[in-house]
Amino acid sequence: LKIPGYTLDLGKVINKINSKEIKNIIIQIPEGLKIHFSRIVEKLESETDSNIIISGDPCFGACDLIDNKFKKIEIELIIQIGHTPIPSLKKYSSKTEYINAESDIDVSDVIMKAMPIIDKEKIGLVTTAQHIHMLKKVETLLKENNFKPIIGRGDKRIFYPGQIIGCNFTSASSVKNKVDTFLFIGSGSFHPIGLLMATEKPVIACDPYTKEVRIRELNDFKDMILRQRYGAIARSTNAKKFGIIIGAKIGQQRLERALEIKKLLKDNNKKAYLISMEYINSSILESYLDIDCFISTACPRIAIDDYMQYKTPIITPVELEILLKEKKWEEYKFDEIFE
Ligand code: SF4
Asked: Which listed site, 42, 169, 234, 323, has its alpha carbon 20 to 30 Å from 115?
Protein backbone atom coordinates (compact mmCIF):
# COMPACT_ATOMS: atom_id res chain seq x y z
CA LEU A 1 0.00 0.00 0.00
CA LYS A 2 1.25 3.47 -0.88
CA ILE A 3 0.47 6.28 1.51
CA PRO A 4 1.99 9.73 0.98
CA GLY A 5 5.74 9.38 1.54
CA TYR A 6 5.72 5.71 2.55
CA THR A 7 5.20 2.17 1.35
CA LEU A 8 3.57 -0.40 3.62
CA ASP A 9 3.97 -4.01 2.59
CA LEU A 10 0.60 -5.42 3.64
CA GLY A 11 0.65 -8.43 1.27
CA LYS A 12 1.92 -11.00 3.74
CA VAL A 13 -0.41 -9.96 6.53
CA ILE A 14 -3.42 -9.97 4.18
CA ASN A 15 -2.54 -13.54 3.13
CA LYS A 16 -2.28 -14.54 6.78
CA ILE A 17 -5.65 -12.98 7.62
CA ASN A 18 -7.37 -14.74 4.72
CA SER A 19 -5.74 -18.13 5.15
CA LYS A 20 -6.45 -18.22 8.89
CA GLU A 21 -9.86 -16.55 8.49
CA ILE A 22 -9.00 -14.02 11.16
CA LYS A 23 -12.03 -12.05 12.30
CA ASN A 24 -11.04 -9.34 14.77
CA ILE A 25 -7.97 -7.18 14.25
CA ILE A 26 -6.57 -4.17 16.05
CA ILE A 27 -4.20 -1.77 14.33
CA GLN A 28 -1.70 0.37 16.20
CA ILE A 29 -0.49 3.35 14.21
CA PRO A 30 2.10 5.88 15.38
CA GLU A 31 0.84 9.44 15.75
CA GLY A 32 2.68 10.70 12.67
CA LEU A 33 0.96 8.17 10.41
CA LYS A 34 -2.53 8.24 11.98
CA ILE A 35 -3.50 10.86 9.43
CA HIS A 36 -3.50 8.04 6.85
CA PHE A 37 -5.47 5.56 8.99
CA SER A 38 -8.50 5.41 6.68
CA ARG A 39 -6.42 4.23 3.70
CA ILE A 40 -4.94 1.42 5.78
CA VAL A 41 -8.34 0.35 7.12
CA GLU A 42 -9.97 0.52 3.69
CA LYS A 43 -7.21 -1.57 2.13
CA LEU A 44 -7.57 -4.27 4.79
CA GLU A 45 -11.36 -4.19 4.67
CA SER A 46 -11.41 -4.47 0.90
CA GLU A 47 -9.10 -7.48 0.83
CA THR A 48 -10.31 -9.39 3.89
CA ASP A 49 -13.51 -10.14 5.80
CA SER A 50 -12.12 -8.93 9.11
CA ASN A 51 -13.37 -6.38 11.59
CA ILE A 52 -10.67 -3.73 11.75
CA ILE A 53 -10.40 -1.66 14.93
CA ILE A 54 -7.99 1.24 15.21
CA SER A 55 -6.27 1.56 18.55
CA GLY A 56 -6.92 5.22 19.36
CA ASP A 57 -4.26 5.33 22.06
CA PRO A 58 -0.89 6.80 21.18
CA CYS A 59 1.71 4.27 20.09
CA PHE A 60 5.27 5.58 20.29
CA GLY A 61 7.26 2.42 19.72
CA ALA A 62 7.43 -1.35 19.35
CA CYS A 63 7.75 -1.47 23.16
CA ASP A 64 4.00 -0.81 23.30
CA LEU A 65 2.57 -4.31 22.91
CA ILE A 66 -1.13 -4.66 23.53
CA ASP A 67 -1.31 -8.44 22.98
CA ASN A 68 -2.56 -9.17 26.45
CA LYS A 69 -4.98 -6.31 26.86
CA PHE A 70 -8.16 -7.60 25.32
CA LYS A 71 -9.85 -10.26 27.37
CA LYS A 72 -13.52 -9.77 26.55
CA ILE A 73 -13.23 -9.09 22.84
CA GLU A 74 -11.34 -11.85 21.12
CA ILE A 75 -8.61 -10.13 19.17
CA GLU A 76 -6.75 -12.61 16.98
CA LEU A 77 -4.27 -10.27 15.38
CA ILE A 78 -2.64 -6.96 16.19
CA ILE A 79 -0.98 -5.06 13.39
CA GLN A 80 1.59 -2.51 14.46
CA ILE A 81 2.41 -0.07 11.69
CA GLY A 82 5.66 1.88 11.37
CA HIS A 83 7.78 -0.13 13.79
CA THR A 84 10.02 -3.19 13.62
CA PRO A 85 9.89 -6.02 16.17
CA ILE A 86 11.87 -6.00 19.39
CA PRO A 87 13.30 -9.55 19.28
CA SER A 88 13.69 -9.84 23.06
CA LEU A 89 9.94 -9.24 23.50
CA LYS A 90 8.97 -12.04 21.12
CA LYS A 91 7.28 -14.14 23.78
CA TYR A 92 4.92 -11.25 24.56
CA SER A 93 4.09 -10.47 20.96
CA SER A 94 2.76 -13.70 19.52
CA LYS A 95 -0.31 -11.95 18.12
CA THR A 96 1.49 -8.91 16.71
CA GLU A 97 2.59 -8.45 13.11
CA TYR A 98 4.84 -5.47 12.41
CA ILE A 99 4.55 -3.57 9.16
CA ASN A 100 7.38 -1.13 8.69
CA ALA A 101 6.62 2.17 6.96
CA GLU A 102 9.42 2.45 4.44
CA SER A 103 10.11 6.00 3.41
CA ASP A 104 9.93 6.58 -0.35
CA ILE A 105 12.58 9.25 -0.25
CA ASP A 106 15.92 8.50 -1.87
CA VAL A 107 18.80 9.19 0.46
CA SER A 108 21.58 9.28 -2.17
CA ASP A 109 21.49 13.08 -2.68
CA VAL A 110 22.14 13.92 0.94
CA ILE A 111 24.85 11.25 1.21
CA MET A 112 26.58 12.71 -1.86
CA LYS A 113 26.32 16.13 -0.21
CA ALA A 114 27.91 14.80 2.99
CA MET A 115 30.85 13.04 1.30
CA PRO A 116 33.14 16.07 0.83
CA ILE A 117 32.72 16.85 4.56
CA ILE A 118 33.71 13.36 5.73
CA ASP A 119 37.43 13.48 6.31
CA LYS A 120 37.75 10.03 7.83
CA GLU A 121 37.71 6.64 6.17
CA LYS A 122 35.93 4.28 8.51
CA ILE A 123 32.29 5.20 8.85
CA GLY A 124 29.68 3.56 11.05
CA LEU A 125 26.32 3.59 9.25
CA VAL A 126 23.12 3.93 11.26
CA THR A 127 19.53 4.82 10.60
CA THR A 128 15.97 4.44 11.83
CA ALA A 129 13.38 1.87 10.72
CA GLN A 130 11.92 4.09 8.02
CA HIS A 131 15.16 4.30 6.00
CA ILE A 132 16.62 0.90 6.92
CA HIS A 133 15.90 -0.50 3.43
CA MET A 134 18.29 2.14 2.02
CA LEU A 135 21.28 1.15 4.13
CA LYS A 136 22.78 -1.33 1.63
CA LYS A 137 22.53 1.28 -1.13
CA VAL A 138 24.34 3.83 1.05
CA GLU A 139 26.98 1.25 1.92
CA THR A 140 27.64 0.61 -1.79
CA LEU A 141 27.73 4.34 -2.55
CA LEU A 142 30.29 4.96 0.16
CA LYS A 143 32.46 2.03 -0.95
CA GLU A 144 32.41 3.34 -4.52
CA ASN A 145 33.80 6.58 -3.14
CA ASN A 146 36.65 4.91 -1.24
CA PHE A 147 35.15 4.98 2.24
CA LYS A 148 34.98 1.97 4.51
CA PRO A 149 31.42 1.76 5.80
CA ILE A 150 30.71 -0.52 8.75
CA ILE A 151 27.23 -1.62 9.79
CA GLY A 152 27.02 -2.89 13.36
CA ARG A 153 24.64 -5.34 14.97
CA GLY A 154 22.60 -4.27 17.95
CA ASP A 155 21.50 -6.33 20.94
CA LYS A 156 18.20 -8.21 21.17
CA ARG A 157 16.19 -5.00 21.31
CA ILE A 158 17.16 -4.22 17.74
CA PHE A 159 15.80 -5.98 14.66
CA TYR A 160 17.99 -4.82 11.76
CA PRO A 161 21.77 -4.34 11.56
CA GLY A 162 22.51 -0.62 11.59
CA GLN A 163 19.13 0.27 13.11
CA ILE A 164 18.86 2.53 16.13
CA ILE A 165 15.82 3.38 18.25
CA GLY A 166 15.46 6.18 20.79
CA CYS A 167 16.25 3.87 23.71
CA ASN A 168 18.98 1.73 22.21
CA PHE A 169 22.11 2.61 20.25
CA THR A 170 23.86 -0.77 20.47
CA SER A 171 24.10 -1.11 16.66
CA ALA A 172 26.48 1.82 16.90
CA SER A 173 28.24 1.17 20.21
CA SER A 174 29.04 -2.41 19.11
CA VAL A 175 31.33 -1.03 16.38
CA LYS A 176 32.39 2.28 17.91
CA ASN A 177 36.00 1.14 18.32
CA LYS A 178 36.22 0.18 14.66
CA VAL A 179 34.98 3.48 13.19
CA ASP A 180 36.23 7.07 13.06
CA THR A 181 32.83 8.65 12.74
CA PHE A 182 29.14 7.75 12.51
CA LEU A 183 26.87 8.71 9.68
CA PHE A 184 23.23 8.90 10.69
CA ILE A 185 20.49 8.92 8.06
CA GLY A 186 17.19 10.32 9.23
CA SER A 187 15.38 13.39 10.45
CA GLY A 188 15.08 15.05 13.86
CA SER A 189 17.71 15.57 16.51
CA PHE A 190 16.94 13.02 19.21
CA HIS A 191 18.55 10.01 17.46
CA PRO A 192 21.80 11.71 16.37
CA ILE A 193 22.18 13.35 19.79
CA GLY A 194 21.61 10.00 21.49
CA LEU A 195 24.19 8.54 19.13
CA LEU A 196 26.69 11.25 20.05
CA MET A 197 26.14 10.66 23.75
CA ALA A 198 26.05 6.87 23.62
CA THR A 199 29.16 6.43 21.47
CA GLU A 200 31.17 9.61 22.21
CA LYS A 201 32.21 9.56 18.56
CA PRO A 202 31.71 12.31 15.96
CA VAL A 203 28.33 12.12 14.23
CA ILE A 204 27.33 13.42 10.83
CA ALA A 205 23.55 13.61 10.50
CA CYS A 206 22.10 13.45 6.98
CA ASP A 207 18.46 14.43 6.72
CA PRO A 208 17.00 13.05 3.48
CA TYR A 209 13.94 15.34 3.74
CA THR A 210 15.62 18.72 4.21
CA LYS A 211 18.89 17.55 2.54
CA GLU A 212 20.72 19.09 5.48
CA VAL A 213 24.04 17.71 6.71
CA ARG A 214 24.60 18.61 10.36
CA ILE A 215 27.68 18.28 12.55
CA ARG A 216 28.27 21.44 14.57
CA GLU A 217 24.60 22.15 15.25
CA LEU A 218 24.33 18.67 16.74
CA ASN A 219 27.18 19.31 19.13
CA ASP A 220 25.61 22.63 20.17
CA PHE A 221 22.31 20.87 20.73
CA LYS A 222 24.01 18.14 22.74
CA ASP A 223 25.65 20.79 24.95
CA MET A 224 22.27 22.43 25.48
CA ILE A 225 20.69 19.11 26.52
CA LEU A 226 23.58 18.40 28.88
CA ARG A 227 23.08 21.85 30.46
CA GLN A 228 19.39 21.05 30.93
CA ARG A 229 20.25 17.69 32.45
CA TYR A 230 22.75 19.30 34.79
CA GLY A 231 20.02 21.79 35.76
CA ALA A 232 17.51 19.00 36.47
CA ILE A 233 20.03 17.24 38.72
CA ALA A 234 20.91 20.52 40.49
CA ARG A 235 17.21 21.29 41.09
CA SER A 236 16.87 17.93 42.84
CA THR A 237 19.79 18.34 45.22
CA ASN A 238 17.58 18.92 48.26
CA ALA A 239 14.86 16.48 47.26
CA LYS A 240 13.69 14.18 50.05
CA LYS A 241 10.82 12.28 48.45
CA PHE A 242 11.36 10.51 45.16
CA GLY A 243 8.86 8.92 42.78
CA ILE A 244 10.34 6.08 40.76
CA ILE A 245 8.32 5.63 37.59
CA ILE A 246 8.01 2.16 36.10
CA GLY A 247 6.62 2.10 32.56
CA ALA A 248 3.54 -0.10 32.34
CA LYS A 249 4.16 -0.84 28.66
CA ILE A 250 5.78 -4.23 28.40
CA GLY A 251 8.88 -3.01 26.60
CA GLN A 252 9.48 -0.23 29.10
CA GLN A 253 9.25 -2.23 32.30
CA ARG A 254 12.52 -2.10 34.22
CA LEU A 255 11.45 -3.32 37.64
CA GLU A 256 14.91 -4.49 38.68
CA ARG A 257 16.44 -1.12 37.88
CA ALA A 258 13.61 0.57 39.79
CA LEU A 259 14.21 -1.64 42.84
CA GLU A 260 17.96 -0.98 42.67
CA ILE A 261 17.21 2.74 42.67
CA LYS A 262 14.81 2.41 45.58
CA LYS A 263 17.50 0.68 47.61
CA LEU A 264 20.06 3.29 46.68
CA LEU A 265 17.70 6.06 47.81
CA LYS A 266 16.93 4.25 51.06
CA ASP A 267 20.65 3.84 51.73
CA ASN A 268 20.93 7.62 51.29
CA ASN A 269 18.10 8.26 53.80
CA LYS A 270 15.63 9.37 51.14
CA LYS A 271 12.02 8.32 50.77
CA ALA A 272 11.13 6.53 47.57
CA TYR A 273 7.88 5.30 46.06
CA LEU A 274 7.37 3.06 43.04
CA ILE A 275 4.76 4.40 40.63
CA SER A 276 3.66 2.46 37.56
CA MET A 277 2.07 4.29 34.65
CA GLU A 278 1.38 3.78 31.01
CA TYR A 279 1.21 7.33 29.69
CA ILE A 280 3.58 9.64 31.43
CA ASN A 281 3.26 13.36 31.02
CA SER A 282 3.66 16.52 33.04
CA SER A 283 -0.02 17.02 33.89
CA ILE A 284 -0.38 13.47 35.27
CA LEU A 285 2.70 13.92 37.44
CA GLU A 286 1.41 17.23 38.83
CA SER A 287 -1.01 15.31 41.07
CA TYR A 288 1.92 13.94 43.07
CA LEU A 289 2.48 17.14 45.01
CA ASP A 290 4.40 15.27 47.69
CA ILE A 291 7.17 14.20 45.34
CA ASP A 292 10.26 16.40 45.01
CA CYS A 293 11.87 14.51 42.15
CA PHE A 294 10.81 11.78 39.71
CA ILE A 295 13.15 9.16 38.29
CA SER A 296 11.93 7.62 35.06
CA THR A 297 12.88 4.03 34.36
CA ALA A 298 10.37 4.02 31.47
CA CYS A 299 11.13 5.32 27.96
CA PRO A 300 14.41 7.29 28.18
CA ARG A 301 12.94 9.99 25.94
CA ILE A 302 10.38 11.04 28.55
CA ALA A 303 12.78 12.84 30.87
CA ILE A 304 14.68 14.47 28.04
CA ASP A 305 12.18 15.37 25.31
CA ASP A 306 9.66 17.31 27.38
CA TYR A 307 12.06 18.70 29.96
CA MET A 308 10.53 22.20 29.97
CA GLN A 309 7.02 20.95 30.75
CA TYR A 310 7.72 19.32 34.09
CA LYS A 311 7.27 21.42 37.22
CA THR A 312 8.89 18.74 39.36
CA PRO A 313 12.24 17.61 37.97
CA ILE A 314 12.29 14.25 36.23
CA ILE A 315 15.64 12.54 35.86
CA THR A 316 17.06 9.28 34.51
CA PRO A 317 18.59 6.49 36.65
CA VAL A 318 22.17 7.52 35.77
CA GLU A 319 21.36 11.12 36.66
CA LEU A 320 20.16 9.95 40.08
CA GLU A 321 23.49 8.19 40.59
CA ILE A 322 25.21 11.49 39.83
CA LEU A 323 22.86 13.31 42.22
CA LEU A 324 23.72 10.87 45.00
CA LYS A 325 27.43 11.13 44.16
CA GLU A 326 27.64 7.47 43.20
CA LYS A 327 28.95 8.66 39.85
CA LYS A 328 30.73 11.78 38.66
CA TRP A 329 29.19 14.20 36.17
CA GLU A 330 32.03 13.23 33.80
CA GLU A 331 30.62 9.68 33.80
CA TYR A 332 27.27 10.90 32.44
CA LYS A 333 25.66 8.29 30.20
CA PHE A 334 22.64 8.50 27.99
CA ASP A 335 19.89 6.27 29.40
CA GLU A 336 19.31 3.19 27.27
CA ILE A 337 17.16 0.08 27.61
CA PHE A 338 19.21 -2.97 26.68
CA GLU A 339 17.91 -6.28 25.30
S1 SF4 B 1 11.09 2.85 25.00
FE2 SF4 B 1 10.77 4.81 23.96
S3 SF4 B 1 12.41 4.97 22.46
FE4 SF4 B 1 12.28 2.81 23.09
S5 SF4 B 1 10.94 1.82 21.59
FE6 SF4 B 1 9.66 2.51 23.30
S7 SF4 B 1 8.90 4.54 22.72
FE8 SF4 B 1 10.68 4.06 21.39
From this structure: 169
The three-point CA angle 115-226-165 to 5° equals 55
Which 3 state secondary structure label does DSSP give 101? strand
Q: Strand 241-247 to strand 213-214: parallel, antiparallel, or no bridges (unpaired)?
A: unpaired
pLDDT digits (tens, 9 = 90+) for 100-156: 999 999 999 999 999 999 988 899 999 999 999 999 999 999 999 999 999 999 999
Number of Cβ within a 10 Å radius of residue 62: 23
Q: Contact, 152 vs 322, CB < 8 A?
A: no
Rounded Cα distance between 146 and 3, Å, is: 36
Question: Ligand 1 in contact with 251 (CB < 6 A)?
Answer: yes
Judge contact between 6 and 104, C-beta under 8 A.
yes
- How far is Cα 147 from Cα 132, in angstroms, rounded to an integer? 20
Region at 282 (left for phi over 0; alpha for psi -120 to 50; beta for the rest) = alpha
C-alpha to C-alpha distances, 14 to 93, 97, 152, 181, nearest whole angstrom: 18, 11, 33, 42
Question: Hey, whose CA ends up nearest to atom 7 of ligand 1?
Answer: 61
Q: Is 225 exposed, middle or buried (0-12, 13-18, 19+ CB in 10 A)?
A: buried
CA-based R_g, the chain, Å:
21
Report pLDDT digits (tens) over 149-199: 999 999 999 999 999 999 999 999 999 999 999 999 999 999 999 999 999
Q: What is the pLDDT of residues 255-282, one digit of tens each?
A: 999 999 999 999 999 999 999 999 998 8
For a mutational test of ligand 1's pocket, the pick from 57, 60, 254, 339, i.e. the residue with the most ligand atoms closer than 8 A to its C-beta, is: 60
Which residues are bridge partners to 288 per DSSP? none
Residue nearest to atom 8 of ligand 1 (CA): 61
Contact 292, 283 (CB under 8 A): no
How large a percentage of the chain has pLDDT more than 90?
94
* Measured distance CA(30)–CA(190) in Å, rounded: 17
